[in-house]
Each structure stands twice: as C-alpha cells, then as structure tokens.
Predict the structure.
Amino acid sequence: MNDELRDRLRGVAVGAAVGDALGMPLEFGPAHPPDRLVRDMRPGRLPAGAFTDDTEMALALAESLLAHRPLDPADLAQRFVAWYRAGPDDVGIQTSSVLGQIARGASWQEAVEAIQQARPDAAGNGSVMRCWPVALAHWDDLDALLADSRLQSRVTHPHAECVAGCAFVNAAIYHLARGATPRAAIARALEQAEAPTALRQAIAAAPTKQRRELPSSGWVRHTLESAVWGLLTTDSFEEAVVQVVNLGNDADTTGAVVGALAGAAYGLSAIPSAWRVAVHGEWPLHSGVRWDEARLVALADRLAGKA
Ligand SMILES: [Mg+2]
C-alpha cells in the first residue's frame, strides 16, 4: 500500500468521526445562513469534539470485521446489542427497535423481519452512518466490499435504499481512495450500488441542488443527497464538511457520511489539525478508554491490514 492510499484510508476513519463531532451541536437545528457557518468544534449535548452513536456503531462494526471476514452478521448484531445495553446517549428509532428485540432473545433475522412487517417503508440513515469500516476492511476487493456493505445494513436496516446506500457510500470510498476524482467516484459507485431508481436519481441530482433544497433529514435519501452535494460542490475536506453540517437537522449523521467520503478524497493530512486534536469519544461505553485521532488511525491501519 502506498503512502497516499494509506493517508486516504486513515482519512475515512478520522473524517467520519470529525464530521460526526462537528455536526453534533447542530443536530436538529435549522440551517445556518451561508455567512454565519459554524467552522469549529462546539459543545452541544456532549462536550466539544465528542463523536456520537454514528461513530460508536462504526467502531462496533470495525471490531466485528477485525474478528470475522467476511462479516458475520450474528457477531455484528451481538456487538451492537452490547453497545445498546450499555446505554448510549443516542440510539436511532429503528436501531433501538431491532436491537431491543435481539436483546430480548430474538435472532437478528427475526428482529429485522418483524420491523419490516411493522414499518415496511422505514428507510432511515442508521446504517449508512456507520458503514465506512467495511470500505477499509475490503479496500482491495470491491465484490467483498459491496457484499459486506449490504449485509451490515440488513442487520438493522433492510430497506432497499438503506442497503444500496451503504454499497454506494463504500464503493465511492473505494474509488476515491484510489485517486478517482469525486465526480468520477460518485458516478462509478452509483452504477455499482444497484440503487433503486428514486435513490439513484436523488444522488445524481444532488450537486445541482441549492442549500434550501436540502432537508438533511434522517431519511437515507436526504442524507446521501446532502453528503454528495457537499463532496461535489466544494474542493477541500474542510469546506465539504462545513457546508453539510451547517444544513442542520440530522447534522451529525450527514457530517459522518460526508466526512468519510471527503476523508477518502483528500486524506487524513487534509483534515484541519484543530479538528483532529479535538475529536474524541469513549469506546467501549463506560470503559474509561478515550478514543482520539491516534486510536482511529491505528484502527484504520488494522482494518486495512497495516497493523
Ligand atoms: Mg448521532
């Protein structure tokens, strides 16, 4: 692996956590006007620089992939449940419902089937927000990357747009890490993700949107639209993430997704150092272990086989 590729894969892990932390205080807020964008780590419901459930679930997925490759969905489900039982600050509605059933003894397949019957149209962003570790684990195998991206979504988010959304994000990371331009990476990933037509059209149209046309809600289609808009209408890591988190609403999750994509496009070295110094979290929950940039970099290296 050359230095540039390694820097980009590290940039995915740190970029996702940085985007999550930057968006955290802006979550559920209104869009900030273009002349008053938040550009620094601020406190919200958590201290400044703290990442949220998006990154916590990604760390659970990462550790599952370090133990089992290809992904073992039952192992992943158990790791998610262990996190859920530890009482995270935030858990998505669908994730909570599925993990609650597994915690009470259902298999992940039974839990997902029940949620599909109860809420067949639910297509939240809870699986795309955490999917990036698959792109690091399979950076050199696109078929395995696509298969495990889809499978990790099915454990909590079986809707076709969620499943395809994860394949899309990680395929885009795959091409960006190899040096494709953002535009080329997005186009190729859209072909390979086999996304339902409506999702495909929304992503393809994203760079033509105006800020006011981007709701940035918890719907996977809105999240991907905002993240792709940020990546394709800016030319730096900082600007991509700043523009997206300042759309407000589900800002930590849109921040995590655009952070992973922009991290792959520009690399770890392009992430502002003040953000890299500030980003942190505790993992596992209540373990007292503080995660920082160095730990995220080490994790990226282990996932990519550079331990
Ligand atoms: Mg969150």
Notes: Residues 52-54, 90, 252-253 surround magnesium ion (CB under 6 Å). Residues 66 and 258 are 24 Å apart (CA to CA). The radius of gyration is 17 Å.
